[in-house]
Amino acid sequence: MAVNEKISAVLKDLPLRILTPSYNERKIILHGIISILDEPEITEPIIKGVSKLLPTTLHSYKDHKSQGLVKSVIFNLLKHHPLWTNQHLSQSIFNFSQTYKTTNATKSVAKCLYAPLSWSFILMKSLDLSNDMNKASFETLVRAQSILMSHVVASTNPKLLASMFKSLRTTFEDSLAPPVLIQQFGDALLKLEPNYHTIILGSYFIRYLKSAKLDSDIPKYKNFLLDAFIKMGISAKVQPPVYIIRHAQHLLSTVTPDEFKTQFLPAFQRSMLRSPEILLPVVRFIVEQFAIDLSPYSLDLGKLLGANLYSKDDSLRSHAVLSLRSLSTRCLSSGDLAKLVTHLVAVFNGSEGKLTVPGYKMSVLEGIGSLSENKVSQDSEPLVKSTLEQLLKILETEVHEKTIVVALQTLTAWLRKLHPPQGGAKDPSPPTPLPPTLITMFKKCLAAKSISPVVRGAYFACLVTALDAESKGQDGSEPSRGQGGVLGQVKEFQTDLIKSVERAVAQPTQAAVVHEAIPAAILLLRVSKTTTDDTKLNAILESTILNMKKQVLLSEKILMQATPEVTYLSAVLATELLLHKSSSLRGPLTSLYRTLLLTLTSPQWDLRRQARGLVRSLYGSEDRLTYALELLREMSGLLNTIQIQGFESKSPASAATNGVGPDSSNKENKDTTNSTGLEPGTPECISSSQLYATLLFLVSHPAFQFDDKDRLALAALPLGAHDKLVAHVRPESVSLLLTNVLHRLNIRDEKQFVLAHEKELIETYVHGTWEVNAPGNAHNNVLRYLTEFFEKTHLAISNEDYFTFLTPPGQIYDKTLLESLGASGGDSHLTNMKRESKAYSYRDQLEEIQLRKELEAKKAKQGKVKETQYTPKQKEAIKAQLDKESDIRSRVTKLNASLVRMLNLLRCAFDGHPAYIALNYNALLPLLLSQLNSPLAAPAILDIYEHLIRAGIFDERDLSFAHTVVRATLRLASPRCDLPQAWSQEPLPRSIERCLAYMSSLPAPLSGPGFCFCFQLIRYMLAENTVAPDAVTDTSVATCLSVIADHSRLRHDDILSIRHPITLPRKNMFSLLLELIGKLFDIPVHYQGRICLVSY
């Protein structure tokens, strides 16, 4: 009997007790389960019940210790009752996975689903596959694993993915695992439905077989998996998520040329003809996964993609260009690529219909340019030269300016392939000149009178690229000082280059003219390395290019209007001047370093990558320390003058909805623009993540000497602690900013560094940032002053007083006095109007009054209205009214000034240390909301109330929800001011319903300050709701109480943590719960209310 009592005690209320938030209680409960497993009274229903309970812990047990406790229970279940455990726990895991079968993959879900996936690996190793019941359990496990694994890979977390594959490998290689496990796993895989989950599981199974040298087993499963991929990834009517395609790489890398020709190519052709808008956005990702040479099929694929280069849909054209780029990276044959280039040129010339829209022509040219990314390493010269000849023919006939510029950019891309690297040859080949036809064409076009500055600058940019390609082809050595090679040909354009710079000096405010001169200046600088006695060249260099006091080419206003190509060329010009002309420069070099920094922090990834290459070339010189210190000094000035945008985030759900998924980041679409839509050269708004990455890059070059690192660290640390940068990073990342800077400089002993530079650090951080690091002294006073002000100051003025305050001095707000005096203009006629008149009807009288008003308004516009004459008695009455309103205006003005000062003080304290202010939201938010009945305070409080959610208390994914909560709360509070019209587009009950649904679906409770915002919505809805009474239902009340109960369990040891219970609005919560219990008579509500009270 004692044993039964022990089992009953352990199992009593187990479904509720196992979800406790306390780790110590979890430990006691789970150890209690383990202690009864070896009892003979344990039956199969008990094991079944425990197996069903374990998946319920997945959303609550987020820490590793708690998850370890659950695993220990599973190990003991398998030890004492293996058959029952395998049968029922496998089914429980499968049932749990089925709830996510059609759910969009997110990173948070992936972390949650990794735990049951690890359980399934434990079960697989313990199964006796000779038992038919265990075979059924095994197949159930494999079906569950396919769903769980596909969600885990969607996280794109390298550590999680590595851990997952390690678990899979160790499961197959474990000595305790059944010897036929791999074969049984493969057989179970073949029985799965052909869907995304099966593709992911099969791909990682193929990866294991390759790593285990079991290549002979791959053909057994390959055809099934390839058919599944073609069905779901190519022939599907819904666009597949990108992460599915990328993680199918292990499968697609096994595709042979024959398989591609017989299976994939026909599937591509059918899908591209049927629905290109579905397949085209992911074609480039599919092509990138193949390991074979796609040259034999490049023309067939290119025709499919080329047909979309002149599509009416802009997105399809851009996807076609990117797909051609990916295709070219998988082509190794120059002959096949030459056929594809010829085909695209023919399309441009009208072989498939005349292209009359310039956008279509530009897309075709961009497609030709994307093919320059090919991997042809041998015999590439004929391909490049034939492509250049065809592009020159296009330039001869094209007249549209933008199309010419794109054609020149395409030509520039192929010029980079004209001088491939020598591969470390001891004797580099002599410089190879550009084709004579190209030089002739350039001269002809530059001599044309109708050529615009934009086109001329594009020609010069082509020559810059040709020089760069020649230099890289010679292993980075300096160009020859003779007359051969590209540099010798550039000298033929010296007159045009000098004229271009002179035009920029004459018209420094014309952006297009200055942009044209930037590549011209680069070419002149390079020509000057081989020419020292050219008087005209030296004169233009000395007067314009080397004179920093009169620098017009790198003007910040001009760079703000620059395209990415011009922005990069401006950074090249700055690098050229610093590297080769630093001794000749006259004046401050601020513009050079600022140009480099603006390029380094550009929102465009390609531009940042190119700029880093330029900075590395600076760091390769002997003056690297000087350059680094100057860049850091200029970065400090940049931080003081720009607006900084916080860390970007994308909603995984929204990403998955549009077929991209959480793993969609790539070079092409990773960060081409910031959220403000600014172009790369625009300095007003820069991402804080890009600034921080730039800071780490500037101090992380391996060439810095040991003695240089301390100086760099002392220069970089103030930037890492800059208030603008710190204010825009995630709160959990702030403590890592300075540490990461030291680690990039290979300074591992932070303590020794601090001791060595104690004086400098104290001066910079203790004296300079005392207020930020010790906020309690000032911020407590701010909150106390604010509370006293609102409690002692009567802000609830009348609407008449408020509108009097808004009326300009000298004017009367209360027009009733003027009406009583008969001096209200046309309105005075109303006093003489009668309902009954023998001469005129009432309607005729109204029309006459309206006509008089229109005539007087017309006279007023012409300045012919005579000022109304008042009697002395009337003037005295008007003066008395003006004095009365002046007293009201003066009183309200003083009140408003005090209010503005207090709210500005709160805003400054919040901007200085938002985390500390957030700890007091439980008292601050009700205080602010209580003042919404004042028309004077309400507009300002609306603004600051919504501003307070930016204290880092909400995750990035919850910010939209937080805004909805704030706006619904303010609508319920009925402030005495006009709300933004956009807030009322959604009915208030619907908005409240969405907020409650989101709160109840949160996987974990919000922080204490975050819940303070939610509680204000709940309080106004349940206790003070006169605006939307329909929102209060039994269901909504139950949801509110459930949310309160969940958050009342917040616990943390650190009193300054946002998860400490002291941050909750405890007093208001008690009051609301007691009021509800006393007011509502519903039994479930009473029960929930008591649970909430006990939870405290």
TrEMBL record:
Database matches in InterPro entries: ARM-type_fold, GNC1-like_N
GO terms for MF: kinase activity; protein kinase regulator activity
Entry-linked SUPFAM superfamilies: ARM repeat
Presence of the UniProt keyword Repeat in the record: yes
Listed GO biological process terms: cellular response to amino acid starvation; regulation of translation
Assigned GO CC terms: cytosol
Keywords associated with the record: Kinase, Repeat, Transferase
Stretches for region Disordered: 652-683
Pfam families for the chain: GNC1_N
Domain Stalled ribosome sensor GCN1-like N-terminal: 222-355
PANTHER family attached to this UniProt entry: STALLED RIBOSOME SENSOR GCN1 (PTHR23346:SF7), TRANSLATIONAL ACTIVATOR GCN1-RELATED (PTHR23346)
Protein name: eIF-2-alpha kinase activator GCN1
Organism of provenance: Cacopsylla melanoneura
